[in-house]
Amino acid sequence: MSLAFISATGPDLLRLLALPVFAWTAVRDIKTRRVSSTVWIPLTVLGAILLVWDGWLAWHAGAVGWSHQFIYEFVVPATVSLGLVVPIAYLFWWFGGFGGADAKALLVLALLFPTLPSYTIGSWSFPLVETPIGTFSFTILTNAVIVALAIPLLLAIRNAASGRIRREMFLGWPIAWERLPETPGWLMEEPNGTTSRGLDLDALRMYLRWRGCTLEKLRTDPEHYRDPATLPAEPNPPTDGAVAVETDGGVSAAAPETGDGDATERSPPEPNEDVPSGATTDDPWGAESFLEDIEGTAYGTTPDQLRAGLETITTKETVWISPGTPFLVPIFLGMLLAVLYGDLLFGVLGLF
């Protein structure tokens, strides 16, 4: 529908540009768990401009500058948005509750949607339900939390419909081993049973790329690759383990977000004596050598965790994985629901 049929203020119309951008980030979050920081820059600039524009409109809406409308429809909600939603996003990121992209998305929303927008299409007015919370970014945040809390229930329903009734049904699902190199998340299985947090699949991709080997080759002869003497003398760059847009089973590294680097591919090495320093026969799969050689911690992966994960995926045809919570998806759905319906929390409370 053309914007000509939508009645709204100039700032509110321009805010609709955020919907397709957040839809794109949600898709990226599902596929790769990576979103470039550059995507937030134009939205931040737009939010700052619209914030000033909204303030100017509210200031001139009343008979005097410091009118009731200016105070309660702009100053208060904008203050809550920037003074509450921004610290919440920062604290959740600081304590590990959010990823960097999730926190940046909420920071952008606090600037982009500080006040309650209003859209009229014919006889319909959106949001459908008006709520006492004038801070729209907080409404989006609470909607996103409600959507995120519903995800385990949806996973359980999906697994139950397929006859998979087990403890892990609320947190993940089984996939074939072939899909592991192109799937975000972490293993929920180890050789001796289940685990709440197994090998991170980003760390697995880092290991495969560092070693210059595919998961298929590891499964073909696990005893051979378990020997640390088969490690490459000059390992490949491990990258950050992101899912490649076009994966070839684990060797091709995902292109950097900036697009200014190319991945290289090497054949798996034959056994040799010139192995990385630190590799010993007491280091199955070369797990310790890998973690010592790379920069960083591979998402907190330990040698034992890496070995357990490799033993699992080289012996089982299907494994249970948890996709985690790609929170940009609930954020986008929370925004869409906020624009069309309003505040889900007040809607539910209103039923009682």
From TrEMBL:
InterPro entries cross-referenced by the UniProt entry: Preflagellin_Peptidase (IPR052218), Preflagellin_peptidase_C (IPR009655), Prepilin_IV_endopep_pep (IPR000045)
EC number: 3.4.23.-
Sequence segments annotated as region (Disordered): 221-286
Domain Prepilin type IV endopeptidase peptidase intervals: 18-138
UniProtKB keywords: Cell membrane, Hydrolase, Membrane, Transmembrane, Transmembrane helix
Start and end residues of each Preflagellin peptidase C-terminal domain: 311-344
Subcellular location: Cell membrane
Membrane topology: Multi-pass membrane protein
One Pfam family from the record: Peptidase_A24
Protein name: Peptidase A24A prepilin type IV
Lineage: Archaea, Methanobacteriati, Methanobacteriota, Stenosarchaea group, Halobacteria
Name of encoding gene: pibD
